[in-house]
Amino acid sequence: MSIEISKEFIEKIQLLVENQENKTILESLNDEHHADIAEVLDVLNLEEATYIIKLLDSEKTSEILMELDEDIREKVLENLSAKEIAEEVSEMETDDAADMIAELSEERQERVINAIQNEDLAADIKELMTYEENSAGSLMAKELVKVYATWTVAGCLRKIRAQAKNVSRVHSIYVVDKQEKLIGRLSLKDLITAKSEEKIADIYISNVDSVHVNDDDEEVAKVMAKYDLEAIPVVDDYNTLLGRITIDDIVDVLKEEADKDYQLAAGITQEVEADDSIWELTRARLPWLILGLFGGLGSVFIMEGYEEIMANPKFAKLFFFTPLIAAMAGNVGVQSSAIIVQGLANDNVKGSLFNRLLKEVGLSLINGFVLGILVVIAGFFMKMEVNFSLTIAISMMSVIIVAALIGTFVPIILNKRGIDPAIATGPFITTSNDIFGIFLFFFIAKLMLGF
Amino acid sequence: MSIEISKEFIEKIQLLVENQENKTILESLNDEHHADIAEVLDVLNLEEATYIIKLLDSEKTSEILMELDEDIREKVLENLSAKEIAEEVSEMETDDAADMIAELSEERQERVINAIQNEDLAADIKELMTYEENSAGSLMAKELVKVYATWTVAGCLRKIRAQAKNVSRVHSIYVVDKQEKLIGRLSLKDLITAKSEEKIADIYISNVDSVHVNDDDEEVAKVMAKYDLEAIPVVDDYNTLLGRITIDDIVDVLKEEADKDYQLAAGITQEVEADDSIWELTRARLPWLILGLFGGLGSVFIMEGYEEIMANPKFAKLFFFTPLIAAMAGNVGVQSSAIIVQGLANDNVKGSLFNRLLKEVGLSLINGFVLGILVVIAGFFMKMEVNFSLTIAISMMSVIIVAALIGTFVPIILNKRGIDPAIATGPFITTSNDIFGIFLFFFIAKLMLGF
Description:
The structure is a homodimer.
Chain A: H1 7-18, H2 22-30, H3 34-43, H4 46-55, H5 58-67, H6 70-78, H7 82-91, H8 94-102, H9 106-115, H10 119-130, H11 136-139, E1 145-148, H12 153-163, E2 173-176, E3 182-186, H13 188-192, H14 200-203, E4 211-212, H15 217-226, E5 231-235, E6 241-246, H16 247-265, H17 278-304, H18 313-316, H19 322-345, H20 353-381, H21 386-416, H22 427-449
Parallel strand pairs in A: 1-2, 4-5
Antiparallel strand pairs in A: 2-3, 5-6
């Protein structure tokens, strides 16, 4: 199947909107998936997008709104009244509803919630909005299928038919006791393959994974990925069943986390996309460049200390090698830190720190040795004195070892202190390794060449 | 809930294995999730792990095996006979079975498949093993619940009870015609909320997404993420239903893809983990460092062309700024390429190339201007001549613009030629930008300072 929206289709829709051919618009969009319609609206202008949102029925538009690009959704929502938004929200799952309302201004939030006709729904949304960002509570939905252990299979199926209408996908049926405490689960499959007179208490599976409403969303993602769960119930301190989190939300969490780490490694501090404005991109990129600038000025400062050797042609060539040394220090540091950051994320940085230190030193010695030999060979072709190319090779090896150790241990230390180790990748490690590298390079060269 | 395995638990298991207290081992592990047992086995030695695998029943061990670290699984499988592996495989879903058999040597593959007692299963696994790696076929499982449009709801439920036993999770029920062609779908919920005498033909949803068996797995991941699907049917050229892909496999694809891009950006060429051997880590890291070395030697070559200005103290200081210039070129290049690579992955690099060029130039001008002012200010404190610090500032701005353009367009061009743009991040872009940067820096300085 193709997931591309054709340019012709978009132009056709634009023309139809211009001519207000409502019937044809509805016909054209009715068979399209809401995610596709959202993509069409993303490229239309605001008036056109709003026109279509107001034209389609709220069952469809509620799903489209959730798929829209955040910036565009914000603008479309500004064009809708509190009552219209309340109608959209009433068609959504509670987690999506709470997320969308949270994007509005505080004053509008209240008006929208007050305009929701179903009071239970309004209460659910209010509850969801109280949970902290990046907590299990902020991810969960209130919709779930819940049965009491005392029910029979037949009674259960009857009740489920009613409950399931509000739940788009039934992953698991949660079994609770009289106090609404989670005691087990059942799959729909178990239920339809059981005899109708059996009691739930006799057939449910008591071994049920759950997360606490205040758990971190990344922790929830790890649990669900590890145990291959498609939904997980959320409970409070008393094990009361509060809601459930589904795998599609976790896919989003994993993707965001991966994107964030990737951007940090590349020196981009906040979530930006290729299509964001120049100002947003500048805000995300400039701070790291300024860090790099100060790092570079630090290197200038170090080299100024060796200014006098420039007059001596025997030593002056050392300055030609500073970008090479800085690049090696940077590359090695980023490699080491990236492996550690990924290892920490996947929980496979185990064993003692001393063993890890030995390993990094060993690895750097091998890499440094191979690269050092290459430098000596290159030096031969570049007609450098052996003494001089050996100096470059040996100081480069030392720089590689130190860079690897910095790249390895800075993220580990940050992680131990509860700081996201991903910030220690990219420009941060490159810049500090540049300075250390240049310092060490001249220091060792001075010892070896004796200036 | 906690997903940590305690050290005490592992030591207890080790002691039990040593004393061959089989009953206690079974009791201790019976209530544990297979993913947790796999984690325990990952840290035990090979004999201990094999002992436990042979002790537990194959229903449990088949799941444990799939969760084991690949290196450890390989070794454990070497200790099992073809017949024992066949028994494990028979308990797995077909996609997992095919994946695990594919890890064996070719000669063992055949023996294991021949040892599978269920001939249909053996045929399914053989079929799955014919699909290319990273294709939809390689991800799909043969297990699914399939009904014919001519059946009634009641008949359907009867048949499903039988089929569902082999399917661990029923996401969708696929509706086929007499030729086994996919014509629609039904949810289990739809089925239990329908009247038992209704015909499937009257209640099924004909709008069903599917992927072709030869589609790329990343494409499948995009489709499933976009349309929030938890399972998708896989068809051949004639729309014959061949299997289904579930969201848990897609989570793995997304994770692998993100990890790979991250590692490429960090200059690590193959999938390695923090706990891999020094040799594996060297193989993954050294090639990029060699690339960096040659880049650095390229800079040496460029600077040698300006050797004579070292004698002039007015110009010699330029050499102090080469690491700064190289760092700026590298950082800007990585930022630009990372944003583009992510944008390409998320399909949001749209619009004309010319507009993108304008945007990158605009962005670089802003960043370069701010950084240039900082350089002039720093120059004031470092007692540089204004003329000199202006030269540094302006050449740095030019370097930033060129670096941003290279970082933006190299991945776009690679992508257009069908090459993974992610290889253009990290050391590749840093190294080429280092050389361009140094070249441009001296070229502009020469023009401005007139040497």
